[in-house]
Write a structure and sequence with these properties.
Layout: E1 4-15, E2 18-29, E3 33-37, H1 44-51, E4 59-64, E5 78-81, H2 96-101, H3 112-125, H4 141-153, E6 159-163, H5 171-188, E7 191-195, H6 202-205, E8 208-212, E9 216-221, H7 222-227, H8 229-244
Parallel strand pairs: 3-7, 3-8, 5-6, 6-7
Antiparallel strand pairs: 1-2, 1-4, 8-9
Bound molecules: adenosine-5'-diphosphate and magnesium ion (MG).
Adenosine-5'-diphosphate binds near residues 20, 41, 45 and 46.
């Protein structure tokens, strides 16, 4: 039996009087890499917030590692990067390495050396070693985003949920980050849920596609999406081809 990491059943959510999400059901299994795409305002960030228990559904249910988010104790298993990070004041009194190290859960005292090693590795990976002692507020938006990506990765999560993580970073860092994610998924079986605008290249990385437009338009493997005549009707062959183009 595949292990369900995320399970969503009959979910409905309304802001004031407007339905933002309706009749959403799907599950993500351990080791999946799901690309969540859909137009602006289609409810992607809201769905993520519901999965994490940051919003409460009006109908239906969410389970995370087999539990309701409100019951979950194993938050260390989850790395999350929200779409909009609160604007950091220029004088926010923390350095790059302090922010990244915040992502570490408290461990046994003798784990301090592992922590230092993990910090060194992840700073290097995101190419922020040279700015480790700068105040976070002094950095550009793209640099801040790299710091927050490093924080999401540092604790070796089992599930990574990233909401448009590479929107403000330059192409080289984006490529590197996406390759790191793919490696974590393939080698360490980390489950990934990645929200992205980049429909043209998500197929190169993700195994499954979740296309949202206030409801689930499609959920499944890329091959099924690409061969589906029904999806050709929904998207037109041009857009379908764009999503299926894997740059291979
Ligand atoms: P996406 O991430 O796909 O762009 P969102 O989940 O952010 O979509 O938003 C879905 C819809 O809900 C949009 O129409 C947005 O305007 C609306 N919305 C988002 N947040 C709020 C809020 N706090 N109050 C009212 N409406 C909201
Ligand atoms: Mg969003």
């Amino acid at each position: 039996m595949p292990v369900e990491v995320v399970s969503v059943r009959g979910l409905r959510f309304t802001y004031e009087t407007r339905d933002v999400l309706r009749d959403i059901s799907f599950s993500i299994e351990a080791g999946d890499y799901v690309g969540l795409v859909g137009p602006n305002g289609s409810g992607k960030s809201t769905l993520i917030r519901l999965i994490l228990g940051l919003e409460t559904p009006h109908a239906g249910s969410v389970s995370l590692f087999g539990q309701a988010p409100s019951q979950l104790k194993e938050w260390h298993k989850i790395g999350y990067l929200p779409q909009k990070n609160p604007a950091l004041s220029r004088f926010f009194p923390a350095t790059v390495q302090e922010i990244v190290a915040l992502g570490l859960v408290p461990k046994r005292a003798d784990a301090a050396r592992d922590d230092r090693e993990a910090l060194r590795k992840v700073l290097d990976l995101m190419d922020i070693t040279g700015i480790r002692d700068k105040l976070i507020g002094e950095l550009s938006g793209g640099q801040q985003q790299r710091v927050l990506l490093a924080r999401a990765l540092i604790k070796d999560p089992e599930l990574l949920i990233l909401d448009e993580p590479t929107i403000a970073v330059d192409p080289e860092i984006r490529e590197r980050f996406l390759n790191v994610l793919m490696e974590l998924n393939q080698k360490r079986k980390v489950t990934v849920l990645l929200v992205t605008h980049d429909t043209g290249s998500i197929g190169k990385y993700a195994k499954k596609l979740l296309y949202l437009e206030r409801e689930v338009i499609f959920y499944g493997g890329f091959d099924d999406f690409c061969l589906s005549a029904e999806m050709t009707k929904v998207f037109g062959s041009f857009t379908q081809h764009l999503i299926c183009h894997r740059h291979e």
